[in-house]
Every structure is written in structure tokens, then in C-alpha cells.
Write a structure and sequence with these properties.
13 strands, nine-stranded mixed beta sheet, globular, four-stranded antiparallel beta sheet, Alpha-Beta Plaits, 3 domains, N-utilizing Substance Protein B Homolog, Chain A, alpha/beta, Rossmann fold
């Protein structure tokens, strides 16, 4: 296959993936899994760059498409709309030569079985270059900030002084963070191992096992990854395990445990002193925990069950610590999952808050007296975080907030809320996470 045709097929595949998200409501992960095998392995990084980048800047790109088209495309040609967005993204945000972008994106229309629309794609991309459209600022707020209006409104309400910085962080590419397994050395030791492979990294005092790579790398080039010496996990997520099991022994529950990053961390730190049970509703995702723990040479009790219905799976023996990493809007990790901006709706937040409350109320009776429950979300919305926890504390007589941080370096990363603490996305390169430590009193 010629270079143009190979590049065209890649762009056609990217358009199908973006259209699956924007028009069909598929998750980006699911759409990639369905389509990316059509592209050679060595070309998949570029495929992902085009898909992630186009969805990240969807509102701005769409505003340009609308301004360049004389009339909107028909709904049956939505994949061509996605292709135009991909073409504009390449011209405005990548270093791919303009002539290659135009020729291969135009040819992609033929791969998408829209040969009659190939001249239109050519005309739109050339007009964008001629009119220097990439130097213009969109007038609509949604396009200027590349977020749907409901998210902008919610951020302005909850974070009136910080919403612009949150939006900017959401639109940036996320760094790659590693978690070093302490049974195989320190983070400082691992920096040395990386340097031996010409890979640069840096440390974070608040997360002693964390290493941030200067440039993302495939896991198969990371020293000791296959042997469980290191894992990929954002440093903000690495705060959960040490916070939960500080001074804890015995039975520990990781509720809603998939994909198992925090489960592995709990076992790395807890060792033989903790007996970990991992519960997740999705049996397929539970298999991911198994694979993760196998790589780390660790083991736990895994249960495919609904954490909000403990009467179906709990043996009646209390847990000394519970990690509730609650399902949420994921509004704090948009930079890693830009499809969230297209898939989430304002109505989701109250539905999620109801689910989170039901999980808290269902799991609290499983906690031993004097035990600790750590409530965690990767959300920045108050309705899922401090408002929800405050309501739970008000209605639960034996629940009390424990706001003593196990690592004082964390304080510099967090915003104190009425209940709990919030890390905003982009803070020293971290994802957005909310934490609330709760203890059961007599």
C-alpha cells in the first residue's frame, strides 16, 4: 500500500472512531478497541493522537467546520464531519506538513465510501489554510474553552476563582506518572534505573513512590514493568492507599476496585498485615484486577458483586478499613479521557450522587468500630464530593471526619473543603481527585 493510501486509511479509521464517540455515544476506549486493529501497530500512536486531540478540541474544531461549510452535512455523513475536524486538527495542532494532511485526509474520504465528497474535503482544508482560520478566536464560550456549556457553568459555580485554570488543565495532555513498588526499591532507585535507559523522570514529595516521566513511554521499555517493579498510576491516585491503611491491620475492603491500581498499591504497602478483598460489579473488569495483581506477584480475594448490596456477598465479618473509590463523573480526569466532555450530561451528576450516597450508606455498616473509610472520587463537582459527604455525616451518628493527613506534604497539593480535600486537575501535573477520610466512632 502506498504512503498516501496508508495515511488515508489511518485518517479514515480515526474519523470512524471520533464519529462513534460524537454521534453514537461510544466511549473512546471502546471505539479504539473496535477499530484500531485496522491500522498497523507502528501507526497506532498517531491514530491515538488524532482521536484524542480531535475530541479534546471538538468544540473549536466544529465551530471552524461550521464556518467553512456553506451548509451543514447530512446526518448520514457525520463521519465526514469527523474527518473534517481531524483534518483541521492536524493543520492547526500538529507538525505534519500541510500538503500531507490535505492529500491524505482527502483520500480518506474515499476509504469512507464518500468519493463524491472528497472535493469538498479538499476545498474546506485549503480554504482553512488560505483564510488562516487557526489564528481566529471563536466567539462562542463553548468553542473558546472546548467544553460543553453545562460543565463550564458547573465549574463557575463550584470554582469561581479557578474554573479557567481547570478548563486549561482539562485541555492539556496528561503526563505519565509511575508508582514504584517499594518491595523492589525506592523511587530514587528507580530514577537511576530510568537514567540507565536514557529516560528522564522526576519525584514528588507528597507521593513517595511516584515518578513523573518527562515524556510518556511504552510500558514495555520501562525497567522491571513486566516483573511488577513499577506500575502506571497518576500520583494523585497514589495518595489513597497510604492514607487508608496508615496504622491499619487485618481485613481491608476495596469497593468498586477495578481496574485495580489502588488494590495493588494497598498490597504493596500492607504486605502480610492486611487481608484485602476487592469487589467490583463488572466481572470483565475484575479480570483486569487479576491481571494487574498477577504482574505484581500479589493476591487478594476478588468478588464480582454489587458493592451497594453487601447482603448478597458480605460474610458478616467487619472490615478495619474500606476504600470507596466511587463511580463518578470523572470530571477531574478529562485530560486523560476527553470523550467525557461529549458523553456526560448535566443530569448525570445527581444520578451519580444518588449512587455514591447509596454506596456510602451500604458500606458503612461493614466498617469496624474505630475503622477508617476513605471516600474518593476523580470529580471536581461539589455535588459528588463535599456536599455529599457533609450530608452523610449529618445523617450518620457514628461517622466523623478524620482530616489528619498521613503525609503533610499533601497539604500543599490540596484545597480544604467544608468536608474533605480536593486536588484540582493540573496541580503539579496531577489529575483532579477528591478525598474524605471518615472514622467510625463508638
Amino acid at each position: 500500500m502506498s504512503g498516501i493510501k496508508k495515511g488515508a486509511r489511518l485518517r479514515a479509521t480515526a474519523a470512524q472512531i471520533v464519529d462513534a464517540v460524537a454521534s453514537a455515544g461510544r466511549s473512546l476506549d471502546a471505539a479504539l478497541a473496535e477499530h484500531e486493529d485496522r491500522v498497523a501497530a507502528e501507526d497506532r500512536p498517531l491514530l491515538r493522537l488524532l482521536c484524542y486531540g480531535t475530541l479534546r478540541y471538538h468544540w473549536r474544531l466544529q465551530s471552524w467546520v461550521d464556518s467553512l461549510l456553506d451548509r451543514p452535512l447530512k446526518s448520514r455523513d457525520s463521519v465526514l464531519n469527523a474527518l473534517l475536524e481531524i483534518g483541521l486538527y492536524q493543520l492547526g495542532e500538529t507538525r505534519i506538513p500541510d500538503h500531507a494532511v490535505v492529500s491524505q485526509t482527502v483520500e480518506a474520504a474515499r476509504f469512507l465510501r464518500r468519493p463524491k465528497l472528497a472535493p469538498l474535503v479538499n476545498a474546506i482544508l485549503r480554504r482553512a489554510l488560505r483564510d488562516r482560520i487557526f489564528e481566529t478566536q471563536p466567539s462562542k464560550e463553548t468553542a473558546a474553552h472546548d467544553h460543553p456549556q453545562w460543565i463550564l457553568d458547573a465549574l463557575k459555580t463550584d470554582w469561581p476563582d479557578d474554573w479557567r485554570e481547570i478548563v486549561a488543565a482539562n485541555n492539556a495532555r496528561a503526563p505519565m506518572w509511575l508508582r514504584v513498588n517499594p518491595t523492589h526499591g525506592t523511587a530514587v532507585d528507580y530514577i537511576g534505573r530510568l537514567e540507565a535507559e536514557d529516560i528522564d523522570g522526576e519525584l514528588l514529595a507528597a507521593a513517595p513512590q511516584a515518578v513523573r516521566l518527562t515524556e510518556p513511554r511504552p510500558v514495555d521499555v520501562l525497567p522491571g514493568f513486566a516483573e511488577g517493579h513499577v506500575s502506571v498510576q497518576d500520583a494523585a491516585a497514589q495518595l489513597a492507599a497510604p492514607w487508608l491503611i496508615e496504622g491499619i491491620e487485618g481485613r481491608v475492603l476495596d469497593a468498586c476496585a477495578a481496574p485495580g491500581g489502588k488494590s495493588g498499591h494497598l498490597l504493596e504497602l500492607g504486605g502480610d498485615r492486611v487481608d484485602l478483598t476487592c469487589v467490583d460489579k463488572d466481572p470483565e473488569r475484575l479480570g483486569g484486577i487479576t491481571a494487574n495483581l498477577d504482574r505484581l506477584r500479589l493476591s487478594a480475594t476478588l468478588m464480582a458483586a454489587d458493592a451497594s448490596k453487601p447482603y448478597e456477598w458480605w460474610d458478616g465479618s467487619p472490615f478495619n478499613a474500606i476504600l470507596l473509590d466511587a463511580p463518578c463523573s470523572a470530571s477531574g480526569v478529562i485530560r486523560r479521557h476527553p470523550d467525557i466532555k461529549l458523553l456526560r450530561r448535566a443530569t448525570d451528576i445527581q444520578e451519580l450522587a444518588a449512587l455514591q450516597t447509596s454506596l456510602l450508606e451500604a458500606l458503612w455498616p461493614l466498617l469496624a468500630a474505630g475503622g477508617r473509610l476513605l471516600y474518593v472520587t476523580c470529580s471536581v463537582f461539589a455535588a459528588e464530593n463535599e456536599e455529599l459527604v457533609a450530608g452523610f455525616l449529618e445523617n450518620t451518628a457514628d461517622a466523623q471526619e478524620d482530616d489528619v493527613l498521613q503525609n503533610n506534604n499533601i497539604r500543599d497539593l490540596m484545597r480544604d473543603k467544608a468536608c474533605g480535600q480536593q486536588i484540582l486537575p493540573g496541580t503539579v501535573g496531577l489529575d483532579g481527585f477528591y478525598y474524605a477520610g471518615l472514622v467510625k466512632v463508638s
